[in-house]
Amino acid sequence: MDFIVSKSNGTAVVKTSVEKLNASNSSGLKAELVVLEKGGVNNIVIDMTATKYCDSSGLSALLVANRMCKDTNGKFVLCGLLPGVRKLIEIAQLDKVLTITVGQEEALAKI
Q1: For the purposes of burial, counting CB atoms within 10 Å of the CB of 89, is it exposed (0-12), middle (13-18) or buried (19 or more)?
Q2: What is the pLDDT of residues 11-23, one digit of tens each?
Q3: Residue 57: which domain range?
């Protein structure tokens, strides 16, 4: 299982369990997000503590989550970024668009 999902009170925490979020598994993350949206979840935290690398398709999945939450007046928070992933997000200037926290507790407090 590449993604572990836990739900509570309209909020879902999606914890990645992949070292690389890339073209081979980002569609799985998008599928999880669609299931959450269909289930009425509009607040999502993605915890990427286990992920050391992310490519453009991984970034695309994160942007899908952000857009889905905004479209339903919810909140999206990204947490647990390792240095390589954080650097990629900063290079793409997505740190200006996404809400990013250090840990899951801080992320849940933003929701």
Answers
A1: buried
A2: 999 999 999 999 9
A3: 3-106
Query: Which pTM value belongs to this model?
Result: 0.96
Residue 62 resides in a domain: yes
Residue 41 placed within a domain: yes
H or E segment to which residue 16 belongs: strand 11-16
Residue 61: give its domain's CATH number.
Answer: 3.30.750.24
Structural domains of the chain, count: 1
Side-chain half-sphere CA neighbours of 39 within 13 A:
17
* Strand 43-47 with 99-101, pairing: unpaired
What are the tens digits of pLDDT across the range 52-81? Answer: 999 999 999 999 999 999 999 999 999 999
Q: Which residue has the tokens 């650097």?
A: 87
Residue 111 is assigned to a structural domain of this protein: no
**By C-alpha distance, which of 32, 34, 108 is closest to 77?**
108
Question: Running DSSP on this structure, what letter comes out for residue 3?
Answer: E
